[in-house]
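Final paragraph of the annual report: two paired records, presented back to back.
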Amino acid sequence: MAANETPTVTAPVTSTAAPSARARAMEFIVKRHYLRPWEALPWVLVIAAYFIFPDRMTFGTQVLIGIMFALSLDLVLGYAGIVTLGHALFFGIGAYTVALLTARWNWGEPISSMLVAIVLSAAAGFASGWFLLRYRNLTLLMLTLAAAILVQEAGNYRSDITGGYDGVPGMEIWKLFGVFENDLYGRTYYVYVGVLLFVVWFVLRRIVYSPFGAALTGIRENVRRMHAIGSPVHLRLVTAYTIAAGIAGMAGALFAQSTAYTTLGVFDFDNSAKVMVMLILGGTGRLYGAFIGATVYLVLEDNLSKMSPTFWQFGIGLLLVLTVLFARRGLLGVIEDALKLFGRRSKS
């Protein structure tokens, strides 16, 4: 540099792309918590069903319980990527908690017995998840299935307490809040379960749209990368598994209360497979897929079993095959694609 030359200082180049991308990301994170108008549709249908089918509320209650059970599985399967065939374990623990409290300890108060069922199911989910979730894929699949079978066989061995496959005798559920009795058509429990389902849905919606829910999605998509950035993967998986176990236990408790009857069949592999089929039919990782899948499955089961008590599963199996082959995002994805196509045609 010459003596008479003055050094030139280059100003740093500021890019508007980064702030813009950051602003868009922040806007997306904030807005995804907002309730959209179409999210009210499932609840409008739940309320409408109460007035349209007043003599089918007992079946409607089982549909709502099925939706709650499917929502619990969606948290671990659809968001965290935990593949399990033993989710009926927690459903059964919830059902048997209510049954044994009622039949063995003469405590039939619905709310408190349901809370005990949630705590015990969540504790079982934490204890089993802490060990089982160290494994992945097929190994985890078999271990979760084995856990449910072991508990079922333990209950069968102590049939003097559990009643075995004959069921728990002497279940007497008290009036809800000491006032509302479960009437012949099941209207009371339909409202009761519907309110609890709304609470569960609201809590799960807050979870999946939180940073914790985003971390679960990251674990599902690329667990190695989440390990690499220092995310506590195992702890988050166990936490999600525990929450899902508590919700499944709530569904089992409501099942026992609404039917006043429980057998070891609640632990069956069929129960775990059924809720997984519900979720696949509706669409995983969406929350609202549980509403569609559980409703379609149980309505088909009810009607097809009346038409053919022996071969009713063929119809559901055929629908499942068609869904897997041609609707990978489930029936909810089909509805979304149809609405998008209709919107494009309307604009054109």
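The closing record of the year follows.
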Amino acid sequence: MKAMKSAINVQVNKKHDGLSFEMPNSKPSKELLDALEEGEKIIQEVREGKRQGYNNVNEMMRAILDD
């Protein structure tokens, strides 16, 4: 795994429980762009009926266990 070069800016968010943070990354990696493109293709295939899609994790697990 590559070391992160940019610093993470962590601030306390008084409106919500927990922390809000920002991870600046001005240029997405090729791996990220490839993964996003693959995700878009999968979504399109589900919409076209070429691939099984699921509405929730229970449907997905049922399909996996039935297979």
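The chain has a mean pLDDT of 82. This concludes the annual technical report; the extension proposal builds directly on these records.
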